[in-house]
Amino acid sequence: MSAAPPGESANRLRGDLMAYASLSLISIFCAIPFFWLLVGSLDGNAQLFLRWPETWTFANYLRVFAKEDGAKWLFNSLFVVGSATFLVMVLSGLGGYALSRTRAWWKLPFLYAILLIRVLPSTALIVPLYKFLLTLNNAEGALLRPIFGSTTRDIMRWTGFIDGYLGLILVLATMQLPLSLWIMKTFFDGLPRDYEEAALMDGATMLQRIRRVLIPLALPGLAASGLFAFMAAWGDFLLPLILLSSPELQTLPIGLFRAFLRINEIDYGLLTALAFIYLVPAVVAFGFARRFLVQTFSGGVKG
Amino acid sequence: MIHLNNVRKFYGALEVIKGIDVTVEDGEFAVFVGPSGCGKSTLLRMIAGLEGIDGGDLVLNGTRINDVPPDKRGISMVFQSYALYPHMTVAENIGFSLSLKKVAPAEIRRQVGEVADILQLGELLDRRPGALSGGQRQRVAIGRAIIKKPSLILFDEPLSNLDSALRVQMRAELQRLHRELSATVVYVTHDQVEAMTMADKIVVLNQGTVAQVGPPMELYHRPDNEFVATFIGSPKMNILPVAMTRDGADSIRLAGPLGMTFALADASLPEGAARMGVRPEHFKVVAADAAHFVAEVAIVERLGVETYLTVGSIEQPIVVRVEGDVTFRPGDRVPFAADTAACHIFSTDGRILRSANVA
Known about the structure:
Shape of chain A: flat
Distance between the termini of chain A: 34 Å
Helix content of chain A: over 70%
Order of helices and strands of chain A: HHHHHHHHHHHH
Radius of gyration of chain B: 25 Å
Radius of gyration of chain A: 25 Å
Number of strands of chain B: 21
Shape of chain B: elongated
Largest sheet of chain A: none
CATH class of the largest domain in chain B: Alpha Beta
Strand content of chain A: under 5%
CATH superfamily of chain A: MetI-like
Structural class of chain A: mainly alpha
Largest sheet of chain B: 6 strands, mixed
Largest interface: A-B, 20 and 27 residues
CATH class of chain A: Mainly Alpha
Number of strands of chain A: 0
Number of domains of chain A: 1
Oligomer: heterodimer
Helix content of chain B: 10-25%
Strand content of chain B: 35-45%
């Protein structure tokens, strides 16, 4: 390669500098809220505006877990969102495969119809949804109460449709399933049938084909669809707010919200610590799925 | 030995395989060749058991296997994409069928080692397919096929993903393997060069029927019909419309395009319109007084050892092969003669009326 003429290389240098400068500005702009959170959560006397702490302390975090029910909220969030994500991955894996391989006439109408679920804002659906879940919940209660008597409420905390984990998990999963189905359907479209047929010729049963061939091949797609489901469900605020009322069931965003609404005073140290805890699982999930995302969205499995 | 007896396949009301009869002997390398859509891949998948058979019998070593599941047929298949599992190492890929059968790990290792020796894959056993070259992947795919000790190996266009240099190398490699394993092979391709270079027996398929079966040189020199004549050989055989008039009991006069006219010693050909097939190498540049026709050179393609001239009109081009590097230029008018013994005569609907009289 021949060396560039001096004028051109100076131009290139100036261009590079400009690019780096503007990119740095944008990154700083994006990073400041996170930095603010971190600084505020470690400040012994956090205020509304960003400031350098006079005393550094973990007291805010201690308060989240010792004084407040932070551990409980974190567990609730992780359990509900994790279950919904798992459900979405299983259903979108199986459904996406079926949708990719079927030649049924209803395939495209079905795919567009489920996308509607995603497009409609859940806020608009909240009343009929609540009504529907309430009816289910009452039916379940009527069924269980004669059998279990006073322990019914403890069971319904897990299996109830209103103010129970199950209802929220199902609704969250339903909201995320359409997109995940699309992702998995597209993913399987790009996966040659040859893989399955080769396994078939090697004598693999249906279960062996799924477990030893399809699931390993589909991992990148599953990670992508799972990540999207997790992030959306993790960030959802409205559904847990409406569907959960018991304090022991509330999730992190609801805990954060209620802490902000307390009378007397706003405890910015507690809020920032809670918010930072709320951020971490999303970042961790992204970290896990990142390497699969590239594969899924840059084109199929390379063999 | 695999025997197809009047095998048929329908997609709905559409018959895609229209009653095919083929026999492939033990140790034979049979190539199914034909243009896209001729049904060759469907036929291969029917033999493999990946597609159902709607009529006729598929008989492998004396047993009818129409309804035997794919893995119980004793048939292996090398897929076009190779279908190597990217999450398994080369050794795991090759040993996959054994591990499904719950063969002991030590035994799997031993057999994989044997196969790897044959295919010279020894150093690659711990790699993933993603880290292999095209040719190495092909060998792994073959390894996965032969470890099952199949009585028949099917290949579905295995060279079509390779670049042309590697393709030539893999053709030689496949022939070597076939000799060493003395395996029975059915190989599908759309590339007549692959068919010609590798096959013991070529099955030319056209629109779901067998156009002709035979060894490569027989198909080349004695095609049964115009389809086979033009499909086998590159560049293609020239097909020219001719009018035949009898000018004696043992002689018939042919008149073709470009004022081409000559007599054939033949007592049986009917008078009237027909189509004449002449391969490019059966035209010669001759002295003006011996010419069957004189034509203007349109295109000159020099390959060094030989030169292809495209002469005549755009509607009826004639390709002529000339030895060596000639000095003709586009626009030159050159006298040509056809080797009359090497002319094929087809009826207007493509049936052979007179085969060429060459070796």
